[in-house]
Amino acid sequence: MDLPVDEWKSYVLQKWSLLPKSIQVTISTAETLNDLFLHSSALLQPEDEMFLKRLSGGYVVGKDPDASLFYREKGNKKFQAKDYMGAAVLYSKGVSHSGPNSTDISLCYANRSAALFHLGQYETCLKDIVRAQMHGYPERLQPKLLLRKAECLVTLGRPQEASQTIIDLESSFAAKPTLSASQFQILQRTLCRVKVKVQEKKNLPEIFPEALTKTFEGMDLREENEQIPGASSSVTLHIDPLKGRFLVATKDILPGELLVKEDAFVSVLNPGEVPLRPHSLESKWEIQATSGDLHCHRCLRHTLAPVPCEGCSYAKYCSQECMQQAWDRYHSVECSLGALLLTLGVFCHVALRSTLLARFEDVGKVIKKLCGEMSNQGICLPESKNPAQILKYGQGGEGEKTDKAVETPIPGCDINGKYERNYNAIFHLLPHTENHSPEYKFLCAVSVSALCRQLEAAGLQAFTTDLKPTKLKAAETPVLGAELNVWGVAMLRHMLQLQCNAQAITTIQQTGSKESLIADTRRVRLATALFPVVSLLNHSCSPNTSVSFIGTIATIRASQLIRSGQEILHCYGPHESRMGVAERRQKLRSQYFFDCDCPPCEREKQRPSAGPGREAFRCHRCRALLQGDDVLSCSGPACTESVGRDLLVSRLQDLQQQVGAAQKHLRNGRLELAIQLLLGCQSDAESFLSAEHSVVGEIEDALAQAYAALGDWEKSATHLQKSLQVVEVHHGPSSVEMGHELFKLAQVFFNGCAIPEALNTIQKAEKVLLVHYGPWNDEIRELQKMKSCLLDLLPIPVGPKE
Ligand SMILES: [Zn+2]
Ligand SMILES: [Zn+2]
Ligand SMILES: [Zn+2]
Ligand SMILES: [Zn+2]
User: Fold this and answer.
1) What is the 200 CA–ligand 1 centroid distance (Å)?
2) In this structure, are 662 and 790 located in the same domain?
3) Quick one: pLDDT at residue 327?
4) Which residues form the MYND-type domain (predicted)?
5) Residue 211 Cα, ligand 2 centroid: separation in angstroms?
């Protein structure tokens, strides 16, 4: 997903392998990114571009009225089957494929409003009704739409507006003799019902939605850092020749304190599993919803009712505002390149968008540096007689270059030492040019050049068909031709930076079957982004912070007490609770180019063969742990049992397969079958795995889910408590994993009406989750709702009457 599709990757790698040795050497040893780019770019032939074009042709990114009809019909089927969620998704796909101001789009919006109505999303439903009308919803169908509008307004407690809608409706009835008698009767009846409701509502005081009055309390930094906007004043920026830039605590920091709150400089929504395949009538249009269908392409907010870009079918937004902002800042250029960007991967897309966003930043300074001081860091401008024209960034003269460099003490900071979240900071993230393999650099450079050629071809057109020509001034458009190389070099730099600096924006996704009442959640990757401040943090396999996201905003909180002078660390992925030291170090070396020497790594290196003890095997006779390498022998005092590791490992693999099969049954709602299988797995696991083995935890967790789905809360709680013990051993009592597990247990107790147990667990879950997420978190708000509901249920001690 991050890198280009496999077909293009192997094509380019083959091209590389066929290059004469001398050219390979020239590219491998290119001293600057500029040289790397120019040498690689020169090798990109028209036939290569043709191949890429054919590959891109497999993605459906344009609008297609046939698709609009197809999705609307599929949506209607789901609607009839009362699957309103599924219907909304399909109508959204229909919306994306219809042109503006067409009957198609108005019908899709109107149908989606009906689905949203049934889902209880009244505000969104109203918006879709307005959209349907705006795009020319047919007159003859208006009464139905107006009725729905009136019902929404009543439900939302807006009786005045509802009355007005009814007046409109009645006059529209009078003007519509075309309505058949039966249709008229149905409408009349519904109208009567709504009128009664309006009357009822009018007698009630107006209710204001509670959510609107809430603020983002606890979401703000207590005191912002003057040197690093977006970071708390409890940290400071240091630099060290070995470690590079890093953050250090300036005072003792308590668990849960917010240390960084930063909006991404750039983010690109991961499109999800978009199938790349040749057109065929059967499977031309994808019915499955991907994350690209359910999240705003700008702010990443989840939405069931996206509005599409008017020019393509793949860019969708939560609102008109997001659509306009995206268009003004980058999408006007990206719109026609959708298929190409899907083919070249998310890294290439992030690289392009970074440079597009930079046009609106104060980048004159950056480019001056680009001309000057950066030349020794691998970026260097092509010779140009008029540097002021380059990129049209600023009026940077060539005269004032190198001496300015000395004034900046830390890369990425301005001359006052301030580290700002702008293009300058992004530009200074390390590309690690010398660490990447020549093949990887060639792949990136060729992909970026192909993108540049397309930009050049689409260029003028893309910029001039801007919907709001005033927003994109001519002076801000990139200059085509030779200067496009500067864009190319900048994009190449970003692409190389991304391997080490890309931050995955993740979200918690519900994965359980619809019947399951307790949350089965999975952390999924939503977008790829660059965060200048978050990028300053170094890695530890046992970090002292926890990162979470709200839309494109990252927050980092202390997950434990951090003493003044200690470094602020977060985990790049390989966490000590998830993998052994050898695997972690290998991963970090190959992706991030460093050898981890964090305390857990140093500790585990001392006894490398031991591995995580909790994943141990045990003796089937006496239950004592087995020890040894290839042949394990029992550690029990009077036992002589021994067994080969191979045998145990293959038994474990079989067991894991069984568990996987059971989980699949569980997801598909075959609960009895799942339980039967899981109980078998459980007794099998008991005979050869330690009680804290992660597979044991998985089995208990799945059993808990299955019983919860059956409504057997007591059994569910028993299994969940066992799973909780395993999670605690692996991740620690205050880990975020523990928080999620406690949340599930709270739900089970809550549903089973075990009031004291539920209250006790809610309190524990809240305490753990608050540290990691702060108060503005869905799970925490859910816990609070459960708590207040339970407190209402508790018998109130009756005092003497006054
Ligand atoms: Zn949005
Ligand atoms: Zn578009
Ligand atoms: Zn480590
Ligand atoms: Zn034994």
Assistant:
1) 36
2) no
3) 93
4) 296-335
5) 32
Burial 674-709 (b: 16+ CB within 10 A, else e): bbebbeebbebbeebbbbbbbbbbbbbbbbbbbbbb
**Helices and strands per DSSP (H, E), number in the chain:** 31, 15
Say yes or no: 69 and 184 in one domain: yes
Cα of 500 vs centre of ligand 1, distance in Å, is 27
The token pair at 5 is: 């599709």
Task: Identify the CA nearest to 346 among candidates 271, 275, 277, 295.
Answer: 271
Whole-number Å distance, alpha carbon 52 to ligand 1 midpoint, is: 31
Q: What is the pLDDT of residue 421?
A: 77
Centre of ligand 1 to C-alpha 433, Å, is 35
Instruction: Measure 641 CA to ligand 4 centroid, in angstroms.
Output: 5
Q: Among the three residues 183, 201, 219, which one is the final residue of a domain in this structure?
A: 201
Å from CA of 604 to ligand 1 middle: 45
* Cα–ligand 3 centroid distance for 728 (angstroms): 20
482 within domain boundaries: no
For residue 306, how far is its CA from the centre of ligand 4 (angstroms)? 61
The CA distance from 682 to 676, in Å, is 10
pLDDT of res. 10: 94
Ligand closest to Cα of 621 equals 4
Q: Nearest ligand to the C-alpha of residue 573?
A: 3
Tell me which of 145, 171, 201 is where a domain ends: 201
Kind of pairing between the strands at 538-539 and 569-570: parallel
Ligand nearest, relative to CA of residue 541: 3
Which numbered ligand comes closest to the C-alpha of 61?
2
Residue 498: φ, ψ to 5°: -65, -35
CA of 635 to the centre of ligand 4 (A): 7
Structure tokens at 218: 């606890």
Ligand 1 centroid–CA 71 distance in Å is 23
- 707 and 747: one domain? no
The Cα–Cα gap between 416 and 552 comes to 28
Compute and round to an integer the Cα radius of gyration of the chain. Answer: 30
Residue 142 identity = Q
Residue 458 Cα to ligand 2 middle (Å): 14
Instruction: Tell me which residue of 385, 495, 396 sits closest to 447, measured CA to CA.
Output: 495
Ligand nearest to the CA of residue 319, numbered in listed order:
1
Cα–Cα distance measured from residue 301 to residue 314, given in angstroms and rounded to the nearest whole number: 16
- Assigned domain for 620 exists: yes
- pTM, 2 dp: 0.79
- Domain span at residue 697 reads 612-714
Coil, strand or helix at 139: helix
Q: What is the pLDDT of residue 735?
A: 87
Nearest bound ligand to CA 637? 4
Report how far residue 280's alpha carbon sits from residue 282's, in angstroms, rounded to the nearest whole number: 5
Ligand 4 centroid–CA 614 distance in Å is 17
Q: What is the pLDDT of residue 459?
A: 62
Q: How many CA atoms are closer than 13 Å to the CA of 716, on its beta-carbon side? A: 26
Tell me, in angstroms, the distance from the centre of ligand 3 to residue 568's CA.
14
Ligand with the closest atom to the CA of 688 = 4
Cα(743) to ligand 1 centroid in Å equals 29
For 152, residues 6+ apart whose C-beta sits below 8 A from its C-beta are: 117, 122, 125, 126, 129
pLDDT of residue 519: 56
The number of domains in the chain is: 3
Q: How far is the CA of 317 from the centre of ligand 2 (A)?
A: 10
pLDDT at 283: 56
How far are the Cα atoms of 301, 517, 524, 732, 779 from residue 521, in angstroms, in the given order? 18, 12, 9, 19, 11
